[in-house]
Each structure stands twice: as C-alpha cells, then as structure tokens.
Amino acid sequence: MSLNSEYTSHKLLVANRGEIAVRIIRTAQRLGIATVAIYTSSDALSPHVAIADEAAHLQNYAGDQQQLASESKLYLSSATIISICKQYRVTMVHPGYGFLSENEEFALSVEAAQMIWLGPQPDVIRIMGLKHEARRLAANAGLQLVPGSQGLVNTLDEALNIANTIGFPVILKATAGGGGMGLIVCQNGSDLSKCFISAQERATSMFRNGGVFIERYYPAARHIEIQVFGNGLGDVVHMGERECSVQRRHQKVVEETPSPFVTGHSGLREDMCNAAVKLCRAIKYASAGTVEFLVDDESGEFFFLEMNTRIQVEHAITEAIHPGLDLIEMMVAQGIAQQSGARGLDHANQSMMQAIYDKNLTESRIHAIEARVYCENPSEGFKPSPGILQLVEFPKENWLRVDSWVSTGTEVTQFFDPLLCKLIVTGSTREQAVSRMVQVLKACKVFGPPNNQAYLASICNSAIFKEGKATTRFLDNFDFSPSAFTVLSAGIEMTIQDLPGRRIGLGIPRSGPMDSQAFSAANILAGNTPETEALEIVVLPGAGCKLKFHSFALVAITGKSATVKINGKQVPMWARLAVSENAILDIAVLPGPGFRIYLAIRGGFPEVPQYLGSKSTSMGLGGYQGRSLRVGDQLSFGSQSSSEQDEIGPIAFLLPKSLIPVYPQDWVIKVLAGPYDDALILTPEGNAKFYSTKWSISSSSNRMGIRLESDQSIDWARNTGGEGGSHPSNILDNGYALGTVNVNGDTPVILTNEGPDMGGYVCLCTVATGERWKLGQLSPGSTVTFRKISWQDAQACMKASLRWIETVQAVIAGSQPHAGFIDGALEGEGRELSGILYRNEWLPESPRPAVTFRQAGDSAILVEYGEMRLDFVLRVRVHALESEVRKRNIKGIWSFAPCIRSTLCHYDPSVISQADVLAVLLNTERSLPDSALDLQFSGRKITFPIVLDDQWCHDALQRYMRTTRNSAVYLPSNIDYLARNNGLEGGVDEALQKLMDSAWLVFGVGFYLACPFLVPIDPRCRLVGQKMNPSRTYTPSGAVGIAGPVAAIYPVISPGGYQLFGRTLPAWQTWGKGPDFASDRPWLLQPFDQVFFEPVSEERYLEIEQEFNAGQYKFKIEPAVFSMAAYITFTDSIQQEIAEFKRKQAEGTAREEARETELLREWQAQKAVKAPPTVLVDDTGMVVGTSVTSSISASIWKIKCQPEDVIQSADDILVILEAMKTEINVLAGEENVGKVVKSLGKGIREGASVQVGDILAWFE
Known about the structure:
By secondary structure, the protein is of the alpha+beta class. Helices cover 27% and strands 28% of the residues. It contains 32 helices and 65 strands.
C-alpha cells in the first residue's frame, strides 16, 4: 500500500493511550495522516501526546461530573471524545485495544458524527461482546463450543444444575468481560455457591452488565487464537494462529507464532483457521479480529471461546511472520474503503489474498515470540508497582522489535494497565527465538519499581516452555523466587548509597554514606568492593528494620550497635552472614552511642541505575525512586553463588573485635581552620571559645547538615555582614566545602553529604576528610569538640582510615590483624593554625584588587577578591582566573564553584598537594592583567518565559502565612515589599518593570541542583531584599526570587527564603529531556550566560511547562559576549541615575528594616507564649491509636469494615484497593486482632484515591 491522497486528506484520533496509541500514530505518520491524541493529567507527558500532531486534554472537554471521575474513566467517556473529534475536525477514529475498543455505543457515535470507525460493524461488536451471544453464533456457524450453559445463568440453583451436568471444575464468566477479567474458577459446588452472587456484582461494577454464564473448565488446555481480517462483504482472510497459553490470572504473558502444539498436530492449523474464517464469513466481519479457541492438550480437540473484535495486544508477532504486514494500515484502508462506494477492500486487493498468507505460513522459516513487560511484582501476587522508571534501555537487534511507551523518567501511575512494553523477537527456529528472548530479557534495562522481567526470563528458560509444553495452568504453580528482598519495616530512614558518591559540583550533592568506614567494612565482609552500593539505615526504639529475603543472600551489617536476628535467632554484627530463602532479617536498635547502620549484600543492587555517575540516593535523585525505602518496597540484589549456599552456615566470618570501632558519646573531630575563623569574623576569645565548646548534636540534624547546640554564644568581631546581610554570620554567597562548619545566624551546622555547595553564611572550619566518617555516627544528644590540625596532619588521618580498610580486607583474606582501629592524637594538634593561606593586599595605586586564598578543608581553597560587595569587576576577575587554570589542565584540580566575588577550587589531595594548588592559583592570578577592562567572555543569551506576580508564588506565600509566620514586612506580597524596600514610588508595577528591563548575568551555578544566581546587568534594576525569616517550607519549581542583590531560579519544589516575584521554567531537567539538556548534563545555565525574561500569561505558561516537562520545549538561545569595557562605558554614562536609585534604595531599605525589626520582635513574642499541653490527635480530632495504611497509590473499590467492628483474624479484609485493574486486599494483620475499628481514615470512601502511607482505618 503506498502513500496517496486518500490518506493525507484524513485526520485520525486515537482513542487510547500507552504503547498501542504510539503504535497507531507511527503508522498514521508513515501514511501521511494527521493525528490527534487524547490524554489525562497523568498522561500529559506520555509519548503519544508528544508525537501526535495535536493533543486534547480530556478534562478540558469533560462535563463537571466527568472531571471529577478517575483518570481511567475519562478514556471511557464516549461523549467527551466525540466532542474532541468535532472540535479538531477528525475524520477517523481508531480505538486500539481495551477502553472503548469493543463498545457498540461508541462505534455508533463515531459513525453518527460522520467519521470513519476503524473497527468492525457496531452490531457485530455488540453480539460478539456478549459472550453468551457469541457462543450462539459460533454454534450456528458449526463451531464446537466448550460445554456449558446455553445462555446467561440467572440464579444459583440454575448454575449448580448446569455445573453438575457438565462436571466440575467450571468457570464463571462475565458475558461482557474481557482482558482476563470477570473470570472465576470453581472447583466444586461450595466454591460456586460462594462466588456466584459476587461474580454478578463484580460484572455489574466492571462492565455495567451483570450477566454471567458457565463453561466447563479445562485445567490442562491450550489457548490458541486465529488472526482474521474481513472486508465486511463476506471475504475473510486469516494470518495463522498465535499460542497464548502462558497466562497469569487469565491474562496473557507470553505469546508465540506458530504454535508449537499446532505444529505438532497435523491438520490442526487448517481446521482451526477454517473454523475461524467460517464464523467471520457468516457475520460478514469487517476489519481486524481474533477468534479464540480452547484446545484440549491431550486430544487436540478445539472449542470456540470468544471473538475479540479489535486489534490484539499480541498482533505484532503475526506481523513479524508476515514481512511487510501492518494490521493498523489494513484497518485504515478498510475504513476508507467502507466509506467509498466499494464498501470494503476489494477481494482482489493484495492484502485480502489468502494465498500470500498461506505461503508465508508454509514456506517462511520465521518464529516469533512476544513477552509482555509489566510494572508488577510477581513475588507479591502480581501486585501493581507504580513509580518512576529510572532507566530504560533496550538492546538494538535486527531480530528485535520493541513496542513501548516508556523511557527514562516515565512515571507509571496506578490509574492504568501496568503494561510497559512488548518485546517481540524472531528466529529461524523456535529454539533460536526462545534463546533470543532469554537474551533480550536479560539485556533490557527497565529499572525502577519491580517488574516481571526476571519472571519472564525464568519462564522462557524453563524446560516446559522450551519444550513447547506450556498449558494455561503452567504458571499456576510456577516456582519463581526473585533475588530480592521486601521491606517489612524501614526504620526511620533507609537509603541506598555508594562510594564515592557524585563529584560534580554545581550544587549536585555528593551523597554517599555518612560513615564511609563502616560502609566499606560491610561491603568487604559481604564480598564486595568497598565502593559497592549498600544500605544506610537509621533505626530507633519502636522503629526497627525488617526485611524478607526471597532468595539466599550473603550479607554484612556494621555501624551502630544493634540486635540482629535471622528468623528470630540472634547473629553478630561485623560478620558475613548467610540469609536463607524466605528468611526474615530483623535489626533493632540497642541503647548507646552511634547512629547509622550499614547493610551490604553480595552483588549490590544491579537494578538500581546510576544517576550522574552514582547510585546514591539524594534529593529525589538516584537510589530507589530517589527516596528512602518504604514498607512494601522490593529491591533486587546480585545473584549469589549456589555453592556457598550449600557449604556455609549462618555465620561465615566474624571480624576480630580489635578491628571493630567503638563509638563514644563525646566525640573529638579533627578540623582544618578556615575559611573564616580569622579575627575579622570572630574575636580571639570567640575563636578560642568555639574550639573549646562541647557542642551538643541537635535532634533536627540529618544528611544535609548536623546542627550543633550550646548555651555558649558566638563572639563575633563585627556587627553585620555588610552587603551579605544584616547578621554578622552573613556574607555574599560563596562556595562551601563538604564537611565545613557553617554558621547560620548563631547556630553552627556541619554541612554533610546532602548539604549545599554554596551560600551566604560564613564557614569557620572544615572536617578533615579522614575524619568525616565520624559525622555519620553523631547521634542526637551526643557531643562534639573540634580540634584544629594542619593539612599535613589531615593527610595522615586519611592514610590511617585507608590503612584500617586495607587491614579489614587482609584479615578477611586470611591474614592476622597487625593493628586495631586507630583514632589517636596527631603531632600537629594544638598549634596555632590559620585558615588564611596567602593574602595579596590592595595597593592604592594599582587597579588590581586584593585577593585572599583561604583554606577550605584538605581538598579545597577559597579564592576571594576585594571587599564584601557586589562588583562586576571582581566577578570578571574570578572568571578570568578559572578560565586560565582550566587552560593549564592541572591534574588533580577537578572543579570550581564561582559566586559573587570568589571561587572555591576543589582538588584531589591524593593527586596534588595543597601547596601545589596554591602555587598554581597564585601564579595564575599574577599572570592576569592588572585591569579587567580589556576582559571579555563568551556566553549565551537565553530567553526564559515568566509569569509575573503569579498564582503559584501567591499560593506559597499563603501557605507560609498559614503555617509559619503571618506578619512580616514582606507579607502578604513579596513584590510590594520589594517596591517599598527599594524606594520605588510606582509600587508593584514599577518593581516588576525594573526586573524586566535588564538582562541578568549568571554569576554562579550551584547551591542545590545547579540553581543559577543572577544579577541584573543594569545597576538601576538591581533591587534588593532580605531573606524571609524563617524560610518557607514550600517553593514551586521555577519560582524566581531575590535575596540581597542576587536572584535565583528554584530548580525543584523546595524550601526557600528569597522574595518571589514570578515563575519561569527551571534551569534543571532531572532526566535531561529536551534539546537543551542531556542525561549527563541535566542543567542549562553556566556562568556568564545572560538571561532575558519574557512575560507570558499563566495559560501560556502551563502550555510551555507541559512542553518542557515532556522534553519538547526549546529555549531561544543565541551566542553572546560580555565585555567589561562595554559594561564600564554603559555604567559611566548613567552614573547620576545609579546614584539617585541607590539613594532611594538606601532610604527604603532603612525604613523596611526598622519595620521588620518590630514585626519580628512581635512574632517572636507570640511564639514564646507556651501553648497548653495537647493530646496528639488526627485530622478529625480523634485521639491517635494504631492504624493501617495504604502500601500503594490506588483507588478504594470496597470498604469491608465499619466503626465498632472487632477484628477477628489477621486475614480480615478491611479495604479492597484497585490499582492498574487489579484488586488488592488490605488485611488487618496479627497486631490488630481483637482491636475495635474506631473510624476510617480521613477522606476514606469508596471511589476515593489514596496515596502510599494514607491511613485507611484507626483502631483502639
């Protein structure tokens, strides 16, 4: 069939989603047919939306009631879809499979609207859709039926009589059912009595038709179907059979053609195909369809089951054995032909010639197999597993076809069928096809929540499948044990970490284990390399960690002392342990110091993909789903040696006690002075007091930072931070080293693995790299005292920690320990040590600014120019320094973190010494010209759409006023505050106009997730504002705000304190989607880019945001050059205007600071008033008891309990959830037996949606 005007004059709407929608659109595009996709909110970023020529949001066209319906029901709204068709001038509709594909009313509506229905006749859909009617038609056509009822069965007595006549077992079928749903097998009369009424109710609920009928159930049978195509004029062709016997819960999992069973029974193919064609000719069938048969595995006798009047999921394998066949194209051609005078494809058309298909079936040596990859958990009863697909990679082979709708970053929701993709392989023999399928299933990387890929591989590797002997009962007792564990209890926090984490900079956290020593030891004990990914766990009394292992594993547990049990039997920590199949590993906290526990499993977690070079969990990135593990999560681990399983006992190796670290309650941690513990920041007495204070660890500490508490104040040597801020701890933003002690106000915080890499607070000292492991074991209530050491001593600390790791490795290899765990004093302790490495003072006659080189731990140097003020001359000099160092390509210097007037140079001390790095920086600085006037730098001019004074930032402020602080100088409007604070008489309008009148220069990229820091190039547009105090807990992604003279674009939803004035697109795209991003570069901006904001409406922004999230948006980017000479010329020409602007700004700032001082005092006084003690209650005001929560995002189908019910059994069903067309029973559990249901959780009702962790029921 060739492209012609018959096709190009049409517009096709696909009334479906997922892979079939993509499949149909691809064929339409090849034919030159314009396409329209439909979608719901959760599908907005799906590929069928992106690749279609046009797309319509179903909610926008639905009625008021339909808008409240679940997402899946919107695809079933015939009226809504017809309305969209009319709006978009659609000429033809393809329904795909599922949804409305076999809905007579929808087909009639399409035809009534003068559009082409790409499917069979509506009356045929109705008759064949009612399975008892289809049985009658098949019988009339001479086909043999499965023994059963002659029509619908209305009463239980009638059902029992029929069942007794045909013999048990029987199967109850919903006449309007499909897709394996609405089927119940009954082994005897008792089963039938229990199930009959519920089967009718379920059929009514699911299919709006409660009719059921009965058939004899054949336990050992084959499910074989025939692909047919008719022209509606009585001409029908078949393309051969497909065997679909491999099923779970009556749903197909693996299909193949030709059938190994049919091939082995002479004449069976001809008989079955003739029967299918005979039936279709009798009803003058039009379009593609499938006639399904049940075949007795022993006799080969076949019985009509049903007819599917649509394209089938598994149609691809039929296309594979008939080269050039495209069933979708045939359906389009038939639809167009039906509309023409011909009323259908001509029987002489090549596609309607049976001889061609017969030749392929008899002469072709192609065998095709399809495996359906579902996001479901085979070891948990095929429970749906919604979540983010963190990596999707398919191998490329000329014998492999992948029909898919997913890619890296796709979110699989609970609303729809969990099919991710279909893998179709071909081979010259069945044996080759099976081998290739096993190969593909092992090579495909679909990583994220659990899926059935390993299950499919196990099926295809089984002897029964390889021999072609699988029946419909094959999977009922199929033995499959994944190499995985399930989380039964997750403690307070349990994350995946690896070493060394991410070493990228740009505000992308390092992550990795907080205690690298215990982490490495756990891996070595488990038989891994020290860097392998493992679990970091925090447990507290009443919140332990419990894991169920589905298969044998070798593990090791280190870190804080805990009670460890395997199947109830206590085992030691710091040992290699053997965990047997189906064993429960239980970790409970013991009193005492220490905080984090590490669990390593041999082989690590191969299905956890790397993100930016690491598997570590961080801020929604990496690890498993970018978060801590939760109850119900299942994690696959590496394959284990079967020989070790047979040979070793539960304890394979125990580390000598002398090598096991003892964690104290009162810690001493060695630090390097600086960058800012000098006399300009702290008084000499304050400096001594800081290092002598025994700081307590706050309970609000986490992986981002460890907060320190003391009744001792910090003695500052200054009153304010100048342009950096009003508090003496404030500075203009600069880089932070990992492990630095950052002072936020008067509270020291040790910035740890998830901490920011730049900000606006001073850092007094930095923990030595060899001492950072201690931070992982600091527990709330323990103390820490800092001891200054030299850079050389820091290297000795690092070597000592490495020696301990090497000793552990040697002992496990069979050597005797030559030393224990070392944590002693060093020779350099107690000496006067300065954080300032070198300082070039400013000379009045020289244009060169002063420059200070500050120590920032043992692996970074902070280079700081000039005075504490925003100055483009200083920023240009920073950029020049970095550019020159990069040109020299110094081995060991791996990153810079530039900001307002400084840059933090990161280096690897194992490659280059501090002295050598300092020499490089000094020599490079001296090589720069005295004046910056002649410097210019290439960058890009990038236009960002922005909504000014937008609804999302308004919402963030309303939340802040409700939950944090309701009265402040910057409330209720940040923009109104900015206008007042900058002395702008024109108010909000003038403030917004100034913010739009200038291009913004990117001064720095970092803090968190490549957040850009921007400054207006025009000094007359540099509005200033204070940070919100306290900060917001919520800021929308893409929000733009100002703090001091600097603006930032928030990369993700996060806390924040900048004054918000609009919302744009974030300069961060987590999965690197879009023409301006890449998977290894998910950030957009770099220093000296110039940002231009282009105001748009909120409606247009929502369209742009959807394009951006789908990876379809392209920024307007042009090359640009920033010239210092041009900048100085420009600013010199407007000096009077700048001076007047700054005068008014200073007056406005003084007024607003005075107001804020009073408002802050009033708020703090209100806060200090003690509230009366309250009883902890839930949202309904009820006293909290025990509860049962949802383990999955789902809809509530049935509520089976009521208040005052007494729980009789652990197996009592409380609620039935529905997700991805699957029912999930929520059981009461042993712990609630005997308790009384007090109430349902807030908002719990049938039809409501619930998220993971939502409370379903309360008990007392």
